[in-house]
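Action item from last week, closing it out:
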Amino acid sequence: MKAWRVSENGEPRDVMRLEEVPDPRPGAGQVLLRVLATNVNFPDALLCRGQYQVRPPFPFTPGVEVCGEVVELGEGADAGRVAVGDRVLAQPGLPDGGFAEYVVADAAAVRTAPAALDDAEAAALHIGYQTGWFGLHRRAHLQPGETLLVHAAAGGVGSAAVQLGKAAGARVVGVVGGKEKAEVAAALGCDLVLDRRSDDIVAAVKEATGGRGADVVYDPVGGDAYAKSVKCIAFEGRIVVVGFASGAIPTAALNHALVKNYAVLGLHWGLYNTKDPAAVEACHRELTDLAAQGVVRPLIGGRVPLEQAADAVQRVFDGTTTGRIAVLPALTPGDEKGAA
């Protein structure tokens, strides 16, 4: 089969190579999937650059979440839970990730893909929306009527938080970079869109909230975004830290948090898979219901063939995309959909 492989660290466009590799076979308790769509995540680029918290051995295939069709069950895989022909969501284990034609995954961890979503949308529902749901509900306890400030609101992670915030009855303020992304954030349903390149974020948030500030901040960016957040956070506000896409990891001034009475909440969603898998399953059911109702629908900024995966990962790292980019192995080069 064809699979993208990384044999040294560097920029994704430079170090990802499309190669012919042996077809994988499912081991005990695993399933073999024909990949229908692989969602491009920021960590895919960090893996290529050697900057992710997990460093798989070379050579490895990035791609941390897929929508796939079950084509074979390994010994001991629960046939009552998953069957050949099922369309499922999965997180393939490294070093053999999802930018490939086939992949194996643990049968116990696959989940039924929502029927209301196509392959690309389904692949984008899992990590980003689970992170958003746990961040807003489990960690920040977002309440109807509260103001939610979302950084990088037109990106894959931010767009999920915008939709989930609106579904929860919050007033959503989206921060973006540039006119095109501002239009995307507005179309997602943001009540107020701010351009970090031209707007005074702190002053605008305070003005929009009558001086109170944002009750909840959802921050996948870090750096300057975090610095601005602490200047416009409300009394008893909650800042949810979910990543550092800017590359700058801020240092929290705990005396400031004490004086202003706000909380800084870390969220590593992956820990719930081992610490509380039942909560992850319950969240998937909730997200599936929201998708069926049309309340949430992942924003797909582009659908590209397998041959263009390296370029897609690079563009996500460079911050030039909106929503999620999905890699579809069955897509023919030249037949791309939804230009990013």
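Closing note: The chain has eleven helices and 15 strands.
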